[in-house]
Amino acid sequence: MSTLYDQSRTAREESSIPQEKLSTRDVQSLTYSFSETTNTLPLTNCKEIVKMHTPVSSLSGFVTILVVQIIFGIVFGAFSEYGKEVLPPKDGEVLPTNLGSYPHFQDIHVMIFIGFGFLMTFLKKYGYSATGFNLLVASLMVQWALIARGCFEMEEGKIRITLGGMVGADIASATVLISMGALLGRTTPIQLLLMGLCEIAVFAANEYFQLEYMKIADVGGSITVHAFGAYFGLAVSFILRSKKSDLTTTNNLEGPSYTSDVFAMIGTIFLWIFWPSFNSALVSGADQERAIINTYLGLAAATVVTFVLSVLVSHEHKLDMVHVKNSTLAGGVAVGSVCNLLIHPYGAVLIGSLAGLISVLGYRYLSPGMLNKLRLADTCGVHNLHGMPAVLSAVFSAIFAAAASTTEYGDSLYTIFPAMRSNLTHIGGEHHDEPIPFGGYGRSAAQQAGYQLLGILSTVAIAIVGGLLTGVVLRSPSVRAIPRDKQHDDEDSWEVPAP
């Protein structure tokens, strides 16, 4: 198809009509003559080729993005206000501050904009799009997450903007970037925008449902962020999957080069270094310190297991960069739901080791099988890095919840597992106005374990259904798609310097 398009473009250039001023009649004339001279495609297909590659169709997508940004600005103007702790104090009142969370906010920012962005630069000719679209999507989704999540916590009809809310919005944007990894190289900016708008809306509702009604423990977001983002993205990818006939066509850009792999490794290192901040940002005190320690140990153990197992299962018994770039991070995901629990150092090492194991095996055996049997493409392997380790984390959260008691945790047990409280008024005299959880308060440890498992099952189900519906929207004829021969190529959206 690229050869045919080149012929069409040459004919159009020779017509001396500027591309941006082509009228409908010009396009019809050119495509008709093109079909006569090539005698290879029907007229309607030739029209579709010209339409699919004109700058006008790309320009309309970016205009839509601008319109969305304007709408966000209007919503912020009409329905948002600074949180009380951000406003100047009055009459000598002392207000709480979130400034202590700013270092974590910075670290998560680095993960979102550098870590995720560079991790996706492994495709040999998709570095502009990986880093650029990551910046664009994250910038939009942080704003949308502030609005969507804020709708569930409005005060006097206003969304209160605080630094704590910004941290939560940053974490929420990671779900879209995870899903983007499953679709990397196969979507346009407008498709990413539409997916992000749908995903954050569903994510915010599911997060509120899981944390406020199910009362699950998920400090590091393994359930609500990693599992949700992975299976939402895979569901969208399933709807956008290629035809069986296209699988025989090889796109030589759908793979790494030596240089692109080195750049991707930069993303891995940034994510590895700052992952403890991601997992510990939403807690404080001893809980935060445990979260940092457990995350680090989980990452270290996953890294060692990844290197060893990569040599064992690779074709030539050499290290595979795919494993090193991704599976070394699986430990951070796997300890997310339990990072603030008393899992003990050996528990963190065990969980990290298992995460590295299942991640490497997933990249080596499961991903190729998903592509060959289901035609389900997972460009970055988010199922192996985020999906399966998140499920592992949820299983361990149920195990440790079942063993939790006041003997070990003291009163902090009721901070970690709020639904296990028998009487709200006994906890530090706090005023609690959160929703009543399912089944009421006074859960036993075994019941809390059951809700942890129910949390991951319901999250995966919601993510898959939401992803399938979103995929239908993205596959709509009114939404521009990238033809297969133009996928994984920056030249579809960027001005690329000549080699």
From TrEMBL:
InterPro entries: Ammonium/urea_transptr, NH4_transpt_AmtB-like_dom, RhesusRHD. It is a multi-pass membrane protein. It comes from the Eukaryota. It is found in: Membrane. Its main location: membrane. One of its GO terms (biological process) is ammonium homeostasis. It holds the Pfam family Ammonium_transp. GO terms for molecular function: ammonium channel activity. Residues 1-23 are annotated as: Disordered. The chain crosses the membrane at residues 59-79, 126-147, 159-184, 190-209, 221-242, 262-283, 295-313, 346-366, 387-405, 451-474. Keywords: Membrane, Transmembrane, Transmembrane helix. Residues 101-474 form the Ammonium transporter AmtB-like domain. GO terms for cellular component: plasma membrane. Belongs to the ammonium transporter (TC 2.A.49) family. Rh subfamily. PANTHER family: AMMONIUM TRANSPORTER, RH50, ISOFORM D. This is Ammonium transporter AmtB-like domain-containing protein. It comes from Lutzomyia longipalpis. The lineage of its organism: Eukaryota, Metazoa, Ecdysozoa, Arthropoda, Hexapoda.
